[in-house]
Specification:
Layout lengths: L3 E5 H8 L3 H14 L8 E5 L5 E8 H8 L4 H7 L7 E3 L1
Antiparallel strand pairs: 1-3, 1-4, 2-3
């Protein structure tokens, strides 16, 4: 069975130096413009207090679409981090 490459929006925020709230906003805007139901990518992470918070688990295609709207430096920051992509079934 083929595996899909994906990354959490929390990781995108960390790698690009953007606030997670801003990455979430950008992701929602992108998915809306692409007419994709954001529930398809909905996920959660645990914050420093151990509380569940919303995030998105973006597939490689959506991740690349998102970061192409960011600066060249931000796109470059994600390139070498491909080892951090998680394998999703």
């Amino acid at each position: 069975m083929a595996k899909t490459v994906a990354m959490l929006t929390t990781e995108v925020a960390e790698l690009t130096g953007k606030r997670h709230a801003d990455v979430m906003r950008d992701t929602r805007n992108m998915l809306s413009q692409l007419k994709i139901d954001e529930r398809n990518f909905a996920s959660v992470y645990r914050d420093a207090k151990g509380e569940e918070r919303p995030c998105f688990l973006l597939q490689k295609r959506e991740l690349m679409v998102l970061v192409t709207g960011y600066s060249v430096a931000m796109r470059a920051a994600l390139g070498p981090q491909s080892r951090r992509y998680r394998r999703a079934s």
